[in-house]
Amino acid sequence: MKNGKLAAGILAAAIALSPGAASAAADSVIQLNYKETSLGSSQVVTSGTTLVPLQQLAETMGYALTWNQSTKSAKLIRPGHEVTLTAGTVNATVDGNASTLAEAPRILKGKIYVPLVSAVSLLGGKTVYDKDSNRLNIVDELRYSVASTQGRTYWVSQKNGDVFYSASVTGKPVLIGALPFTDLIYTHSLAVKNVGKGTELLLLTDNHYAMFNDFSNSYQVLIRNGKILKQMDYHYMAKSYIKAPLLKTGQLYMTDGGSVQYINADGSPGKLFDLQSITGTEGNYTIEYAAEDIILARLMTSTQLFAIHTASGTSVNLSQQLISAGDRKEWDRADGSDDFYLTKMLVLKKREGNVMTFTYATLPDGKVKTVTYTVGTQ
After folding, report:
1. How many angstroms separate the CA atoms of 307 and 311, rounded?
2. Cα–chain-centroid distance for residue 30?
3. Does the domain at residues 142-240 carry the CATH identifier 1.25.40?
4. pLDDT, average across residues 293-305
5. Tell me: the pLDDT tens digits for 316-342?
6. What is the 8-class DSSP label of residue 265?
7. In this structure, what DSSP letter does residue 245 have?
8. What are the residue boundaries of the structural domains of the chain, listed by start?
9. Fold of the 29-139 domain
10. Cα 85 from Cα 98, distance rounded (Å)
């Protein structure tokens, strides 16, 4: 695993076509900064003009959208930009100034559709159509992502890491902080989890596969009433293999690979667990399970799985305790980057009350064994 900052840069740069000059076939792929979006499957091409659902386009370009049913108008907001469109007219406003679309937005199948090229231009982007590959690309340099919960809205620029906040979907975005990067190579998804009492956990995450490895990157921000309480981030690179499904709990936490920060029910930062100090083993960890009473943390340089008991702050090396002495002669030499071992390592399968059930396979014959661990008996 590598734990470090992502290299800056994005493969961009294309000559923008003027609004109305780019059109595409009905089956064309629509991309954002050369990454495929869901817009292609929703497009409608009529009289040489590509129309797309405004809601999808707004989300793709990082805009919060509100719809006024009585006026049939939509307001789109992101940092530094506000656009108003109305069904049935080409007239629009951009940051309070009059503007126009190539065609009037229209309502189709209960959704408002807009002409893609001129709408993208109003929203601050550019479009390029490659006839040979039948791809239409939206170039959006600021690359904002947006997420909302409980009426509160967040934006993150994937170009410079700026984090913006608004207490309402129609409010002006306010800069509240920045994430520790200058430009992201890969597009990260943005999600927000409501913790309660005005507190949210903001997650900017990327998981992708390349060159037989799985890459996982995450920036986590705990925010209360527009104020950042805590930030953490991790960057993993691990051998790709078929993984067992992880058991889910309702426990919220943040991690940087070396420590875990629990989040209390009232939204405040809870206990901080320094994994290296607790386990006495240096390295970076992935979190495979987190509950109120226990954490399962995997040391990435090996296959060792540790149980962290949250009440006492003590740890148990489950790989040593649950794998029999005879089987462990081989497992003690296991390499965490070798997929032969990764597919056979100790894995949590279920939890019933305090009893946790695990399986592992012997080396080298691969015979699967089932073992249990009872929480609270340490």
Report:
1. 12
2. 21
3. no
4. 94
5. 999 999 999 989 888 887 877 888 888
6. T
7. P
8. 29-139, 142-240, 254-378
9. Copper Amine Oxidase; Chain A, domain 1 (3.30.457)
10. 11
